[in-house]
Amino acid sequence: MEGLFAIVVGGLVACGVYLLLRARTFPVVLGLTLIGYGVNVFLFATGRLVTGSAPLVLPVINSPPDPLPQALVLTAIVIGFGMTAYLVVLALKAYGKSGSDHVDGGPAE
Amino acid sequence: MNHWIIAPIIVPLVAGAALLVLQGAEAHTKRVLSLSATTALLPIALMLLSAAASGEQQTYYLGDWPAPFGIVLVLDRLTALMLVLSAVLALASLFYALAGEDKKQEDFHALFQFQLLGINGAFLTGDLFNLFVFFEILLIASYCLLVYGGGAPRTRAAVHFVILNLAGSSVFLIALGVIYGTLGSLNMADVAVKAASADPHDTGLIRTAGLLLFVVFALKAALVPLGFWLPSAYRSATAPVACLFAIMTKVGVYAILRVHTLIFVDPSDGTYLLAPWLLPLALATLALGTIGVISASELRTTVSYLVVVSVGTLLAAIGLFSRDALIAALFYLSHSTLVTGGLFLLADLIAVQRGRDEARLDRPRAVHQPILLGTLFFIGAVAVSGLPPFGGFAAKLYILKAAQGSATAPWFWGAILVSGLLVIASLSRAGSAIFWRTNHSAGEAHPAQRCQAVSTGTLLAAAFLLMVFAAPVLNYAEATVEQLLHPSGYIEAVLSDRG
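Predict the joint structure of the above. Result:
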């Protein structure tokens, strides 16, 4: 499972970086979102990957899962969501001002 | 517990929230509320400074949760110094904004308070994830402050700023994930203890996390090669916002100082993880900033690059990682923050009085009040380039002296002295272009309002005061560096049982 997990995180981040370097605002937003997913999944894994564990504390299970990464991921998701929403609005504003969706505000000349 | 420790976070939080609720209220009410909250920060910060000066590191346990489990705020000398700087700078820039700048943006005062909340929180927190959260708070407020009004250039600068910082936040989270995954804690003191006794198997991962954190902080501090966003962002911000932003790069510097002197130190020989990286990068930043200052054709661009120069000088001094160099760096930090803040305000005054020629250096239009602005410019230029009789001179002298005997001294001295010379030349050129090489037109009749002149003058006068009171400030800096170089005090203060 660890191998699959690592491939998923790596794949998400690699696609995100590729899209981020496209230098058009829409792919950039998608890229940042993908990186955000990769990072969140990665943070989630810092509590160690286990199967058959309780979702929270149960008296019969001796090693309850670590709740902290879940709290961190939740915070990171909320912040990432707000920031992405802001970036979308900003990108629309930039498009309205410059008439181009290039992050430098004009087609490459 | 000393409950005043949390006041620099609570005051702007409550004021900012109240300002949002009072959105429809009259501008006057908002101003009174915002100004009184910001003014209150200064005595609070000074009180915390005098409490910290006793040498005791005070901690504040949020919700009274014990240390590695709950979030902890820590007040030590470095934190108190940064809080005072941010309070002074915030008060001056808000006072400047009262001339009318604040009315141009609807939620200016609320955003200003949230920005202060983020800055003060980042200085106070003793928890790495909490540091991330406060970074995000100050960033989202700065995005909104930066973007309002303005045409395509300002929006473009904001797009770059936001995208870069979002990417930076992801890197920050990855670093935090690595630290939590290997050490199982995010409390800075606890992480420091665990990192010192970590399994040698994990050292590689911990070092990776340390360098990833450095990337994030370097992005905030605008270190080469991550600092190219700064000039366009600062140039296009309005004056009070740019003035407040002068402390933002210092938040990055603070985070480097805090995290890398506390956690990423080799316990066996006391070498710092950053030692091979910081000095060369800082000298490159210094060179780039100097080239920018020479090539700038507009005063606000010049001042933006002066911020880059100051970051380069500051981090180069920190990069020596010696006791004397750190003392000099802290002194220079106080000086450069206040002076660059003041210069942003001054550049705006000049731009307004020159009408549509703004602060461009290739146009001959005169300013309306050449004597007032000329004097302020002269003081600012002399102070920022590190000439006597201002604090910058003493700071640079100490920085140069601290490099004596180190292997890198020739590079270090060469870079700082050449950069200083070129900055003086460029500022002389800018000053003569604006004040002397004019067509003797009268300039736009927008005389500087009293609050604008006072706040600009105060920040620049601080440079002089720092020279007059150099001895107490240096003593304080020396004691601060003692705390930084001996992190065991910090760790004990956080992790010991409370009485």
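The two ends of chain B are 9 Å apart (CA to CA).
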